[in-house]
């Protein structure tokens, strides 16, 4: 009798242990949401700014002859250049940045000068660890056949330097948004390039959450592209010319309701109208929505819930 009781307890323990393994495996199988939630959201319409816990980063265009990325300390308000080393007269920093957590990325172009003309020589993407502000060149590509082997970088000679409007990266790839209506993926280790998305509106409005790329189709629908499986899903019942992705929702200009701003919940797809006024475009900073009205072409600010509309020009006065 005691033997049967021991055997029953042992079998029960095995069953409980097996059940724990099954539950743990089910919980651990789908890591896509976790990966997405740990990634800062990128929106191409705000490609000149990024914010993390310590700093606010932006492209300083105060001096048009010296456009550069800078950062402002949230603690002290001090503003400094993001780049440690000064640029030469034959180097330009592009007018956009990408950020994720403690890392900020910028792109620069080096030129050769021949007479009155400047010719693109090299594109570089630099990663800045804002905990130490150490810089790492994560990608370089040359127009000539010289290989920067001493840097341990993969370089090639066939990229089209012109027309890049923004970019974003993950651990494996670099994604270039190009104004000839495509998104190009470059493998950071091998340098292999392929065009993964083609759309007439893709260069004007793109978002990325660490796994999915959101872009506008030729029919003004929002398409969700899975960078891991390469599958695409068209988000139903949304027709727009302008959108902004957050952690929890998709803000967009609703063409089916006179270009008013709407919000769609990413979890249950419920839709809410935010603005009563028709708008041309808008941006969002996790606190306020700033939009340009179609009625008077003025800029306004409203809360996320659509309340407390304020005329920006009037606010400045």
Give a quick precis of the structure.
With about 325 residues, the protein is mainly beta. It has three helices and 25 strands.
Q: What do these coordinates show?
A:
It is a single chain. The protein is mainly β. It folds into two domains: 34-223, no CATH class; 240-317, Thrombin, subunit H (Beta Barrel), CATH 2.40.10. 12% of the residues lie in helices and 46% in strands. It has helices at 2-29, 32-37, 312-316, and strands at 42-43, 49-51, 55-60, 68-73, 79-81, 91-100, 103-114, 117-129, 134-142, 164-169, 173-178, 182-187, 193-198, 206-208, 212-216, 221-226, 232-239, 243-245, 249-254, 260-265, 271-273, 279-284, 288-293, 299-303, 310-311. The strands form six sheets. A five-stranded antiparallel sheet has the order 1-14-15-16-17, with no helix packed on it. Strands 2-3-4-5 form a four-stranded antiparallel sheet, with no helix packed on it. The radius of gyration is 24 Å and the shape is globular. The relative contact order is 0.08. Mean pLDDT is 82; it is low at 1-35 and 145-159.
